[in-house]
Amino acid sequence: MTNPNDPSLTSWIETGADSDFPVQNLPFGIFKTQSSSPRIGVAIGDQVLDLAIMNKLGFFDKIKIDNSVFTNQYLNDFIALGKQTTSGVRDRISQLLQSDNPELRDNKEAQAKVLHYQSNVQMLMPVKVGDYTDFYSSIDHATNVGTMFRDPDNALLPNWKHLPVGYHGRASSITISGTSFHRPKGQTKPNEAEPPVYGPCRLLDFELETAFIIGKETQLGDSISTANADEHIFGMVLFNDWSARDIQTWEYVPLGPFLAKNFASTISPWVVTLEALEPFRTAGYKQEPKVLPYLEYSGDKNIDISLDVLIQPENTEETLVSHSNYKFMYWTMEQQLAHHTVNGCNMNIGDMLASGTISGPRPDSFGSMLEITWRGTKPVKMKDGSERKFINDNDTVIMRGYCRKDGVRIGFGECKAKVLPAK
Amino acid sequence: MTNPNDPSLTSWIETGADSDFPVQNLPFGIFKTQSSSPRIGVAIGDQVLDLAIMNKLGFFDKIKIDNSVFTNQYLNDFIALGKQTTSGVRDRISQLLQSDNPELRDNKEAQAKVLHYQSNVQMLMPVKVGDYTDFYSSIDHATNVGTMFRDPDNALLPNWKHLPVGYHGRASSITISGTSFHRPKGQTKPNEAEPPVYGPCRLLDFELETAFIIGKETQLGDSISTANADEHIFGMVLFNDWSARDIQTWEYVPLGPFLAKNFASTISPWVVTLEALEPFRTAGYKQEPKVLPYLEYSGDKNIDISLDVLIQPENTEETLVSHSNYKFMYWTMEQQLAHHTVNGCNMNIGDMLASGTISGPRPDSFGSMLEITWRGTKPVKMKDGSERKFINDNDTVIMRGYCRKDGVRIGFGECKAKVLPAK
């Protein structure tokens, strides 16, 4: 069995040097065509492989999975089979797509049944999200926010370096890339001396994040150690944590963000497995002061994922507004999961845990308009000549993410959504 | 058709003056017996009526509901039938249980199949909770907390009287009454000058709350008005929002409570329908300053629900520590729901929205140990002679709730859980 991450592997399906989906990636998602019901697919190049038909045609015969797992509107039941099985499926797909394997390559009849161009299918929410948690784990982001709103000399709150601060978010309003939404309305207090007012949010922002998806459940009372955390992480997606800054400012004391966040979040459709990301692990921040033992970890646990944010005003081209990287995270996913369960909080398959805004150290790597324009004081220029302090009606925000090493590039596809005017 | 809330109704099943479940209540829940799978039941006196068998025997023939709705581990599919149908089922059950109706009364064979003593069945989670939100809507509670931790002269934060402050909580750790849990462990900072420490929570508290369950979904972008809110509320349960005060103090800035809450919440098993609660509506607080138009409402929207909290140390009798009332709420459920959706946040059937701690104006009506013992400065005496500042290992906390008017008493049953020592 070859290692499916081997940089030397090539596929008989042309993938191109800039494709997000070479044979080393093989992310899972849910798609449907005009004539098919929702089912599990794997991305390869600009195509998607229909796992339900693959299974029916006997390509996974040695793995033995009931086809209802594949003809499903969510990945949850598939993920629940366990990493040994899901990795086995990825390994088998890798084998079948490798240049020298004739099984599917030379079977045009089967290819016609199992391959679709991505442009011809509709991607759906990959998982049913039970609970969604958002962290606040980028030190540059937390420092920027603390500097703007509190005290530049004490930008980080006392707890920040001792635990990965997090809070619960709304699962129901997480939507798949391509889902437009209306600018939220709500209560804000634009004038300190006047009563609050009701109306459309004026300071609509994106937050560049990633999220990981729970792959193995725990029972109430159980904790997950940093050493075991990876067993519980199925994979990752890009995550846009849309934020209404003016609603947040007025509502969030003392119990945290609520309506400023729960009107919409957008995720990318392909779940990139933790296995596919392993070659791109990199060292994390040196954590000083030393963390408590339950948060200690060993090895390289950050991941080098380039992250781009682009704004596309209506009918014009995209403008890059941020180029960040997941490696800038102070707290790792393994620490986030260990902290989240240290009190016995139970995890379910499909639960989504987001990183918090991922800002790098330089202004061109900040992960939100709040930081990029420094509260609107430094507007950014679009290619069409217009300026942005925050996000305008009919703007589309696009996030892209990819890892690159040893000549291999694996990506996440797009996380994209358009803001419609308030209803 | 008689009004099922009519105080003059009696049942051929003996219910007793102090029963929570007279024929005027008829709450829905999920139960199983030693020999049966989970199914929907309705409480009557000290018995439970098996709706799956009732339907099979033809007692609901005019309503026509597929039996899979009743032989279900959650109420969600039943609730999704809509209020016209679920109220129709309640009306029909009321009819069948009324003293003068012979259909079931005189059919001993059917009775043997459809009635179980509650003491012989196991109650299960009534709904699959998608998202759980907790509000902070009791003015006495917010004032007490603000007085203790901030400024007695400005106890309420500036936003408190303008909007029902709320935050997202963890759905996965909501458990059914009777589920014990281990004292949570976590990070606290007992000494201001020292680094944080890891260990069992020392200040474990209950919070006396109720929660309402969403009965009609909305799509992303939709808002619910206060006038339409009741259409979207299926019913209510008692809710113990267990809280680790020392964990909360250290973690909650700036994004709100997280591990201090998500280790366990406990609910009562019977969902009392909004229809059954209607006779007990009462006037709410006069809201000054005037709220924004989207939060205005008309009519009596508070509900007179007596609420008791008792602590039972191991192997001894219960001690009443609080006698509060849901009528003390400043913000109504209708306002909470209008606020929650003003930004287009979508609601799903089974979503749970809790009140926040319900404290009354007097110390004996405070809804948490934090308030009752005023941060531990005024311990309360148990009947066995011991004292409590917070909740000890092996203590059981019991909440009970009931409405009483015109000789009718309808109740919620118990919300009860025991705290086991830290693992």
**Percent of residues in helices of chain A:** 10-25%
Structural class by secondary-structure content of chain A: alpha+beta
Q: Return the CATH topology of the largest domain in chain A.
A: Fumarylacetoacetate hydrolase, domain 2
Secondary-structure arrangement, i.e. CATH architecture of the largest domain in chain A = Alpha-Beta Complex
The domain tally of chain A reads 2
Largest interface: A-B, 63 and 62 residues
Number of strands of chain A: 26
- Rg over alpha carbons of chain A: 22 Å
- The CATH homologous superfamily of the largest domain in chain A is called Fumarylacetoacetase-like, C-terminal domain
Low-confidence runs of chain A (pLDDT<50, min 5 residues)?
none
Main β-sheet of chain A, in a few words? 8 strands, mixed
Rounded to the nearest angstrom, the distance between the terminal CA atoms of chain A is 55 Å
Oligomer: homodimer
- The coarse overall form of chain A would be globular
Residue fraction in strands of chain A = 25-35%
